[in-house]
Each structure stands twice: as structure tokens, then as C-alpha cells.
Fold this sequence. Notes:
By secondary structure, the chain is of the alpha/beta class. Helices cover 55% and strands 9% of the residues. The protein contains 18 helices and 12 strands. The chain has helices spanning 10-54, 63-103, 137-141, 147-158, 163-176, 180-195, 200-208, 219-238, 247-280, 283-290, 297-304, 314-329, 336-343, 345-386, 439-455, 487-504, 522-538, 593-599; strands at residues 394-395, 402-407, 418-422, 427-433, 463-466, 470-474, 509-514, 542-546, 562-568, 570-573, 576-579, 584-585. A 6-stranded mixed beta sheet has the order 6-7-8-4-9-12, sandwiched between helices. A 4-stranded mixed beta sheet has the order 1-5-2-3, with helices on one face. A two-stranded antiparallel ribbon has the order 10-11. Strand 10 and strand 11 (576-579) form a beta hairpin. Helix 2 crosses helix 6 (180-195). The protein is elongated and about 115 Å long.
Amino acid sequence: MSAIPESPSPHRTYTERRAAAQADLTALDRVSARYANLRTLAFLAAVGIGGFILAGRLPKVWWWGAAGAVVVYGLLAVLHHQIFRREARAKLYVLLNERGLARLGRGWHEFTERGERFLSASHLYTPDLDVFGQGSLFQLMNETATRAGEERLAAWLSGPAPAAEVEARQGAARELAPRVDFRQDLCVDSRVAAREKAEPNLFIRWAEAGPSLDAIRWAQPVAVVLPLVTLTVYVLGKFGVLPEATVWLGLGAQLAVALITRRTLQAMDQSVEVGERGFVRYAPLFERVESQRFEHPKLRQLQSGLQRPGEKPVSAHFARFSRLFSFIEFKRHQFHPLVHWLTLWDIHALFALERWRAAHGAQVRHWFEALAELEALSCVAGLAFDRPEFTWPVMEAQGPRVEATMLGHPLLDAPVPNDVSLPGPRHALLITGSNMSGKTTLMRALGANVVLALAGAPVCAKAFRLSPLQVLTSMRVKDSLERGVSYFHAEVLRIKAVLDAAQEARGQALFLLDEILLGTNTRERQIASREVLRLLLGTGACGAVTTHDLSLAVLADEPGAHVVNVHFRDHLEEGKMVFDYKLRQGVVDTTNALRVLRLAGVPVDDPEAPAP
Length: 612
């Protein structure tokens, strides 16, 4: 089992990087203040000179001085804006490193990006294993800035990947983990684009929409030939070969073409302008990815996906698009109507963009998917960097199988480690124990680590081996007054979903059931619980079940099934219950429900207790 490579202390790394970013921010604040003062001086100079001229105390030639002051003010404003942008980036670097320090403690619980929109009560495991929501895996790991990156990370946590893909993600994340510079630069570039309201999906829709100018395809050659003919007629008129008024025939024809094509050109102009911000603002991200020298095949594959063989890189396509779009932006100029009339400018500009779309439109979605993949990989790499004590799981071909040494819950600050072994099909742990002793926490620890492992992430364990499998849980079953579903019925529906999914997975599944069928009487619960466990094991799945029903322990004696009884326990110290959260072999021989009630101030008696 290979552990995560040695790297600098996360706390030291984030502390030093935060200090450097704060120093940059302080320096930029001083520069910004100087620019503000200079802009004020330039403004006062322009106003003062103008005032003296109007008062007759300076000659009118000084209007040039006022104009010069206005120009200087404009230049200073442009330069000052660049300082503002650099300050915004420096603040983001400070924020990223403060978030990094927060993840090393409990501060990450304050992060606002919790992934609630990915929660689904019907999902096979995410509601029970704190994958999304407050205090979740997503809240801990998420450092994406784009919606696509967020959705990619959520998808990884919501479904298991094949073994080959898991190993590819592991290798890529291991390479990215120590590259804090690149990961933070990528995140800052993404956040800057997101702050500017860039929405690439709008541009993707435009890029994939297909031709918009087919209805006026005839206008493309006309826009080339007609202005040249008009110019030739004008020149010939000047030399007396043709009447000078003949040129108005050409200009009239050009005006007619402009009017006929106006509506179609405006429709395309509006569609591309809506999406343009969501495209060009991401150019720095692609340039940064292209500039990297990656070693792992997955990273190189993602990088090469941004450049087809024999073609220029994506950043070059961005630059080409920006130049073409700038021609469209000329419509904002006061002389645009005249220029368009004389040259049919918009026809040339929009057909050029149409050619760009025909050449690259089908690739645009793939470009942003590669970027989303890199964002998700950076989140996995960030977890590896922040938790150097975590280890990379080893994937096994044969399963179902989950074996862990010193397994802990990845969301707890100081989890108590336990060993868990489910070495093959039809293996199960029957976990008994007193209340609050750690039964459910162990199952959640096992499930959460399997989710991390099959997303390609490191896990909270000293060693971890598993096969590709589907995680299935029944822990936080809720009734629904709105849907008229009782607790027992809701639990039955959940168990049915778990059974169906285990059969669909052909036994390649891990089931985790917490105190099932509590909503019925003891006798029927015992019968039903045994049958449910037999049915699940009959699919070939492996898993764990917690219970207070000690009668289920007899399942360990049934032939064909490999059920192991394990338990947690507590003991009294100075009249207080103490838990060590250590897993032990066998069935628990103590209970504590009445003791918990009494400690909480509920005066209950034990009718079976011997008389004093």
C-alpha cells in the first residue's frame, strides 16, 4: 500500500502563501492610492484649466492643456482598473489559503458551498452518508468555481467509477496534490470568470446551434463583389468614363442588401453576444492548462484534448474568436452605419464568425468538459494535500470486497480507528452494542470512505482495499405526512430499493443497514430482519447491519453465509458512561438504554432488576 507522497506541511504552506498574498495586497493598495491621487490631480487640472479659460485668465490655446489632462485622467483610469483587477486576484489568493487553513480544522463547516442542490432523498446512499449538505464530503472537498466543475465533482461522489478510471483519477490527483501553485491559479482564474458572470453554457448552446445565416448565404459573395463594383464605378465616374451619379446605383444596391439582411444578422448578433462573455472570460484558464507540463497520462489526455492533432491550441482559437467578435463590436461606434453601408461590414464579420463556429463549434463542449474534469481532479488533489495521513485505496478485480486497516470517519477531526474486513461475497458484519457506542458511525465511516475511494480520492485509513461496487444504505429513513407515508412504510420502500439495486448490481454491492424495521413489533421485526439480510446475502453482496436485536446473532451459524458478530460497548467510570468506540468480536452482553434515560433526568425503573 503506497501512502501519499511526502509534501510540505499543509498548515505551513497555506500560512506562507496567505502571508505572501496579503503582502501583495498591501502593496497594491498603496499603488491604488497613488493612482487615485494622480487621477484626482488630473481631474482638478482639467477643471482648473477649463475654468481659467472660461474666466478669461488663460488664452484659448490652453484648451489643449485641458484636453491633455482629460487624456491623462483616462489613461490613469485604465491603469487604475488594472490595479483593481490585481487587487481582486490577490484577495482571492488570500481567501483560498484561508479556506485551506479552515479545512485543516473545523472551519470548513462554515463554507457556504454545501451542494444542497444535489441532494436527493431517493438516492441509494448520499442522504445517509453526508455526501452533500452541511458537514458533508462535498462541503469539505469543493473548491470549484464553475458550475460544470461543481457538477463533475458531485457526479463523482454520487456514483462509483470503474476500476481503471478510479486508478487514473488517483494518479492524476497524486501529481496535482503538491502543485498548489497550479491548483490555486486555476481556481482564481475560474473565480474571476465566475465573478464576471461568465456562463459558458450560453456559448456552448450557440456553438452547437448550427448555421444561422443559411437564409442569406447569397449575401456573402455579394458583400465581397458589390462594394468593389461600387468603388470601381466611383473611380470611373471621377475619370469621366461613367457619369458620376452612376455610383448611387451601387450605393443603393448596397443599402438594399443591408436592409434585406438586417433581421437575420441582428438575430445572430444577439445570440453570439449573449454567450460571448461566457466564452472569452475563460481564456486564461485554458492558457494556464496549456502551459503545464504534466506527466500522468490522464492529465496529458485532458491537456491534449484541448488541441487536436495538427491544429492550434484552444487559446489560439479563443484569440481568433476575440478578434472576430471585436469586428462585431464595431457596431457600437458612431460611424458604424456609414461603414456598414459602404462595405457591408456586418455581413463580413458575422460570416467570419459563422466559419469559426463551423470549424470549432462541435469541440467547445469538450473543451469545457476537460476544464470541469481538471477542477474536480484539483478538489481530489486538495483533499490529498490537506490530509497527508490519508492513504490511496488499492482496487481489486474480484468482489465484492472491502478491507480496511485503521479505518476512520473522514469528516471527524479525531476518529477512533477500527479494522473492517468484508473479504468476499455474502460476507456481513452484524454490529451490536449499547446506545451511542459508535455502531452507526462505523457504518458511515465505511460507506463514506468507499464513496471517496470510488471517486478516485484518498481515504481515512492506514490501508484500504476494495473492488468496484455499488453502495446501498438505509439509515435516515423519514416518514412523509405530505405523501401519506408512515415511517414503517418508508422504511419498507427503502429496503425494497436496496434489494432491487443489489440484484441489479449482481451482488457487486455494499449494503449498510442501520436498525432496520423499527416501526413494527419485536417478533415480526426479528423475522423480517433475518429474511432481509438473507435476501441481500443471496444476491452475493456484502455489508453490515446494526441492531439491538440480539436474536439476529444466530445468522452467524447459518451455512453458506459469512456473518460475523462484532460489537461496541461502554463502561461506567465514577458513575458516568464511557465509550472507547473500539470494535470487538462477538455479541454485546450489556445494554444502557435505561441508564441513558436516568442520566438525562428521566426517572425510569427496571422491573427486571433484582430487589434491593
